[in-house]
Amino acid sequence: MPVPNRKHPRSIGVIGAGIVGLSSALYLQKDGHRVQIIDYRQPGSATSFGNAGAIVTSAIEPTSTPGVLRDIPRYLLDQTSAVRVKWSYLPRVAPWLLRFILESRPARVHHAAVSLKPLLAQAYAAHLELAGLAGTCDVLRPTGWLKLFRSERGFATTALQRRLMDMHAIRYEVLEPDEIHQLEPHLARIFVKGLYHGDSASIKLPKRLLEGYARTFLRSGGEFIQEEVQSLHLLEDGRVALRCDLGMRVFDEVVIATGAWSKRFCQMAGDKVVLDTERGYHLNIEPGDAREIRRPLCFPEDSFVIAPTDEGIRLTSGEEFAGLDAEPDFSRIRQLLPKAREVLPGLSDRVTREWMGRRPSTPDSLPVIGRSPRVAQVIYAFGHHHLGMTLGPVTGRIVAEIVRGDQPSIELTPYAIDRFRLFGRRS
Fold first, then answer.
1. Given the DSSP bridges, would you call strands 368-371 and 247-251 parallel, antiparallel or unpaired?
2. What 8-state DSSP symbol labels residue 276?
3. CB of 131 closer than 8 Å to CB of 139
4. Residue 325 and residue 310 in contact, taking contact as beta carbons nearer than 8 Å
5. With bands split at pLDDT 50, 70 and 90, how would you rate the model's confidence at 343?
6. CB-hemisphere CA count at 13 Å for 230?
7. What is the pLDDT of residues 242-270, one digit of tens each?
8. Lowest CB count within 10 Å: 6, 279, 283, 310, which one?
9. pLDDT of residue 362
10. For 253, phi and psi rounded to 5 degrees?
11. How many CB atoms lie within 10 A of CB 103?
């Protein structure tokens, strides 16, 4: 399939109005293209809405690591586990889980780290560029990212992550109790070690950032179409037609940035992808008498994050495989409220919102970015698992490079969709 002619501005449809779709639309618009975003939800109201607001530029360790095989029974049997696979969903997720286990081999872990590094290295600069364009720089904060451990045994679980960061020259600091107290003086003094990533950042409230991007897109002549895409068709003249709720819409090129919902769009283009839905939860909590925390804080031993936002304290947790449509189960995250109040004295138990989001997860922890090998007019930009907010803007920048016809600033082979063509192998 020939690659489209790019000598003139193109008409481009971006399916998906989350952080990746909005970022792609802004970068494409910046290049002079005529862009429409299509989503049946309001911009930024799905998975991008509810994360902890962390821009973790040190997140080089993939999700699947050596030893994951022995954890699978716990995911199935332990009702208190932060990672859970619903028994009724097991037959559907089994192929993904098998591939996930294969990705835990040391060589594959190394491949994932090498492939994540260039995306992470450009992530914050891309955030700053788009925030400058949208006038939302005040929402970004150079706070760093802090993991805290109650025990030396808990801290020892970071050995692989630290080894990968050392290999790839990613800066971090190991903190002792007094140093933790200096960074976060209002936390309970119960932590023996901290792992601090000073080059990471955070977002005061993801919703505000996304609203700023959406306003800028519309002010610059973009159009938002609140419809659902039913099907995709390649026309004889080389353009792409999308059948939407209210009729056909025709574009020179189409960007698929629909997160966990992307598999069906890949199928429309004739491509296969190993993708599943990793559901995560948050509670928004009134601070009560708790004093200020300065940055998102991760507690790996208890499997949750707390983050300060303009709405209160956001408690996030959960990695649940139950599909796109199963009802949410807030019982596990509610059980974490006493833990959160233990680490942040004075925190109230007044919950003002319960929320569930759907992370788009590939077994190798790498996104899918690049042209469809079957329909060159289709560009993929999804599958960022836990790093959607971190990698959204840099992915949008790469999408614009692809449409422009430039040599991408990052080698895209590791993110190609056809890496899933053969089970257990890369084509």
1. unpaired
2. E
3. yes
4. no
5. very high
6. 7
7. 999 999 999 999 999 999 999 999 999 99
8. 310
9. 97
10. -145, 160
11. 23
Question: Residue 370: beta bridge partners?
Answer: 380
Q: For the beta carbon of residue 419, count every other beta carbon within 10 angstroms.
A: 18
Give the other-Cβ count within 10 Å of 1's Cβ: 13
Kind and range of the H or E run holding 307: strand 304-309
Question: 35 pairs with which residues across the strands?
Answer: 12
Which residues, listed in sequence order, are joined to residue 378 by a DSSP beta bridge? 254
- Say what the pLDDT of residue 33 is: 97
How far apart are the C-alpha atoms of 16 and 37, rounded to whole Å? Answer: 7
Q: Using CA atoms, how far apart are residues 362 and 277, in angstroms rounded to an integer? A: 9
**DSSP type of residue 290:** P
Give the type of residue at 320: E
| Alpha carbons 264 and 111: distance in angstroms, whole number | 27
CA 303/CA 157 separation, integer angstroms = 13
The residues that bridge with 85 in the sheet, in sequence order, are 321
Beta partners for residue 381, in sequence order: 369
Mean pLDDT, range 128-134, rounded to an integer: 96
- pTM for the complete prediction? 0.94
- Cα–Cα distance, 39 to 225 (Å, whole number): 6
Q: How far apart (Å, rounded) are the C-alpha atoms in residues 314 and 285?
A: 6
What is d(CA 265, CA 258) in angstroms, rounded to the nearest whole number? 8
Q: Is 352 exposed, middle or buried (0-12, 13-18, 19+ CB in 10 A)?
A: exposed
The domain limits of the chain are 1-61+105-139+200-275+364-427
Burial 208-240, CB ≥16 within 10 A → b, else e: bbbbbbbebbeeeebebbebebeebebeeeebb
8 Å CB contact between 31 and 400: yes
Distance of CA 10 to the CA centre of its chain: 28
Query: Token pair of 60, please?
Result: 């080089």
